[in-house]
Every structure is written in structure tokens, then in C-alpha cells.
Design a protein that fits this description.
Layout (H helix, E strand, L loop, with lengths): L11 H12 L22 E3 L1 H14 L11 E3 L21 E7 L4 E7 L3 E7 L3 E5 L2 E4 L5 E4 L5 E5 L5 E7 L1 H7 L4 E3 L13 H5 L20 E2 L1 H9 L12 E4 L14 E7 L8 E3 L3 E7 L1 E6 L2 E6 L3 E4 L5 E5 L6 E7 L1 H4 L7 E3 L11 E2 L12
Bound molecules: 1-hydroxynaphthalene-2-carboxylic acid (1HN).
The site of 1-hydroxynaphthalene-2-carboxylic acid has 12 residues, from strand 3, strand 4 and strand 10.
């Protein structure tokens, strides 16, 4: 595919005219690139090590307490080096559309209640004893659970256990920030009342694949917590079949009353890469943030090998070749991921292409070196 180029020569007179237009807040379309033949991501393939993020959170734990009168949330977010230019007036996301962070809540802490127009989801990484309350339903957070807070739902978190609980947050903040159309509101009290039986949605969906008849009518979050046990069962159920050549065994979290993504603006998936899995390369328009829930391996993105292990995060930008490999001889790998398909697909942006050279495998040209110097020392 080639780019359309104008044959017109820009004379000094024309260049002066272009500048004159810009000075008057107008622009010459004829001197602009009409369109690119392919998506040109600004975000770059990138990886954050678990130690980098946890080191930063440990420092934040030493310096800051969560609660009314101090800070609302203790979270460190991942800024893609290619999106840094948006900071500090906008949000430099992990990709061009997705904000991703790791949040830590200590025993006894309450993250006060609020709501906003950006849409949130969480993946619980480790620790027991914390819960999130979303529009009156209290959902316990257990490792491997996926929890949603769709836009404009009141939500607060509490840790009633005796260990720090860590989770990944993902929101559509760079997208909503670009639209400059967000609202935010604090709840009048620190915590909202719990108005339903604890874990209400999860109990209503204990069977996993049948829905209460009232949910024939769509609602935004009939199921607030997708437990690891049920997700794992779904992935194990696929074992006797051949894995997908690009994604291994993969499932996506859906709203059981609509069949669409559980969070209407941010897609989420869990994929299992069996032992010896060596995926083939493809690329698609949607961008993805991966979290390595379990296992170790690597992903090749545009010819660069990104080695990962449990707890790491990596960003896959728009239209980037990628293939996943499980390098462990003994352990399956589980990758949780979030994507911007829900905001791309309805407008016809999504495309996918398989890599056809070299039997579908990219040649590895270099190995990514994580910024270990970024690990923040804890005194
Ligand atoms: C938020 O409400 C949470 O509720 C986490 O835990 C991260 C980032 C930006 C705006 C709101 C939460 C957030 C956020």
C-alpha cells in the first residue's frame, strides 16, 4: 500500500500562504497528508515489570494513606512512552485509549465512594479481604476475579482483611479525556450503603451459563464479579480442542443480559497458553494491555521479543504484529487483557490480518530491555 502524494511544488509564495492561513486559524488541506494508508500508532510496544510497579507502590504506601482527608486511591498508572506527550494536561495511557494501573489497598483502608463517566474494570492480582461496593452491591475481591464498574456507578473499596490487596484497574480515560466530556461526583459519605445481599450478581449467576429470567431485559451490570473458578472452568473446558493459532484458549467477559462486553467501553479477556504453546503472528486495529496472571513466556511485537513473567504488564499498540509463546516446560500461562474493541467495532474500525511470511512467525530482531533502573528503592 502506498501513500498518496501530491505532485504540486510548494513555491515560496505558497509556503507563505500556508503560514498566513495558520496564523488565521485555518489550514490548507492540499498540503496535509490526506490520510495514511495504514494506522500509525503513537503508542509503542512496551513492557513494565512487576517489580517496577510494586516498588513504586511500596513507596506510595510509605508516603500516603488512603481515606477521606487524604487520598482517594493509591494507584500507579502505566504511561506508554509514545503517549507521554499527553501528560500533564491529558492522560498518557498504556495505549492510545486505555488507562491501566495497579492499585494497592492496605488493611483497614477505605477508598471513598465516587462515580464518573469513565468506565472501569478491575482484575484482582493478589491478597484477600478487600471488597468493592458498586451501586449498592458488595463484591469480595479474590485473586483472578474480574470486577466491573461501568460508567456513572457509585463505587468504593474497603480492605477488611489483614494483608495488602493488589489489583489492576483499567479505564477508558485517554479516550474520554480526548472527548473532554466527563463528569465526576463524590458520594456525600465515605461509603455507600450495601443494599443487596453480598455478592448479589455472582450468586444470581452461580451456574455460569444460565441467566435469571428477569435478565432477558438488558441492564448495564447484572453480573459485577466474574470469579476465577468459573473463568478457569470455561478455559479448561476447551482443553480437548485445538487452541486458536494466535491466542491459545481465550474467553471474553460478557454482560449476560446483552451478550456484549461486560464493560461497555473496555473489552476484557482471559487466555490460557498451554505448555509448549507457540502462537502465530497477527495484527489488528484494537490495542491491548496485557497482564501476566500466571506463567512465563514472551510475546514478539513488531520483531522485538518481550520476555514476561507473572505480574508483568505489556502494551500492544494498534496494528502491531504479535505472537505469544509459553516458554515454561511445566506451567500453563494465563494472560488477562483489556482492549478497546467496544469503542472501535461499532464504528467499523476493526480489521485483522495474519502474518503470512516465514510460516506465520516473525523473525526476532532484538530483545526488549525493561527499565529496571526505574525500580524505586524503598528506604
Ligand atoms: C477510579 O475511580 C479508580 O475507583 C481507579 O478504584 C482509578 C483512575 C482515574 C479516575 C478514576 C477506582 C481511577 C479512577
Amino acid at each position: 500500500m502506498s501513500e498518496h502524494k501530491s505532485k504540486q511544488q510548494w513555491t515560496p509564495e505558497l509556503l507563505d500562504f500556508h503560514q498566513e492561513l495558520k496564523d488565521k486559524n485555518m489550514g490548507p488541506l492540499w498540503a496535509s497528508v490526506f490520510s495514511s494508508s495504514q494506522p500509525k500508532p503513537r503508542a509503542v510496544p512496551y513492557l513494565w515489570k512487576k517489580g517496577q510497579i510494586l516498588g513504586a507502590l511500596d513507596k506510595a504506601k510509605a508516603l500516603l494513606e488512603v481515606g477521606t482527608g487524604s487520598i482517594d486511591r493509591r494507584a500507579v498508572y502505566l504511561i506508554n512512552p509514545g503517549m507521554k506527550h499527553l501528560e500533564p494536561h491529558g492522560w498518557g495511557g498504556a495505549t492510545q485509549t486505555l488507562y491501566a494501573a495497579v492499585q494497592a489497598l492496605n488493611p483497614g483502608e477505605i477508598a471513598p465512594s465516587h462515580r464518573h463517566m469513565t468506565s472501569a474494570l478491575r482484575f484482582i492480582m493478589e491478597g484477600h479481604g478487600a471488597s468493592g461496593i458498586v451501586n449498592g452491591v458488595k463484591y469480595p475481591f479474590e485473586p483472578g476475579d474480574y470486577v466491573i464498574t461501568p460508567e456513572w456507578c457509585w463505587h468504593d473499596h474497603v480492605n477488611e482483611g489483614n494483608e495488602t490487596v493488589l489489583w489492576m484497574d483499567c479505564l477508558d480515560i485517554p479516550f474520554t479525556s480526548a472527548l473532554t466530556s466527563s463528569f465526576f461526583e463524590l458520594y456525600p459519605q465515605e461509603q455507600q450503603p450495601v443494599e443487596f445481599p453480598v455478592d448479589y450478581g455472582t450468586k444470581r449467576y452461580a451456574g455460569g451459563m444460565v441467566r435469571p429470567i428477569s435478565d432477558r431485559k438488558p441492564s448495564p451490570a447484572p453480573l459485577g464479579r466474574y470469579t476465577w473458578d468459573l473463568t478457569k472452568q470455561a478455559l479448561d473446558g476447551q482443553s480437548e480442542f485445538a487452541p486458536d493459532p494466535f491466542d491459545g484458549f481465550a474467553v471474553e467477559y460478557i454482560n449476560p443480559s446483552t451478550g456484549k462486553d461486560a464493560n461497555g467501553r473496555v473489552g476484557a479477556r482471559m487466555q490460557r497458553l498451554p505448555i509448549h504453546y507457540k502462537g502465530k503472528a497477527h495484527r489488528h486495529v484494537h490495542s491491548t494491555v496485557y497482564h501476566v496472571y500466571k506463567g512465563s513466556g514472551y510475546t514478539v511485537m513488531n520483531g522485538v521479543r518481550f520476555d514476561w513473567e507473572e505480574g508483568d504488564f505489556f502494551a500492544l499498540p494498534v496494528w502491531t504484529w504479535h505472537e505469544h509463546v509459553n516458554t515454561s516446560a511445566t506451567e500453563e500461562a494465563f494472560l488477562f487483557s483489556t482492549n478497546d474493541l467496544p469503542i472501535l467495532e461499532p464504528f467499523g474500525f476493526e480489521r485483522e490480518e495474519a502474518y503470512t511470511e516465514n510460516d506465520g512467525y516473525q523473525e526476532i530482531q532484538s530483545v526488549f530491555e525493561p527499565e529496571l533502573s526505574d525500580v524505586i528503592a524503598i528506604d
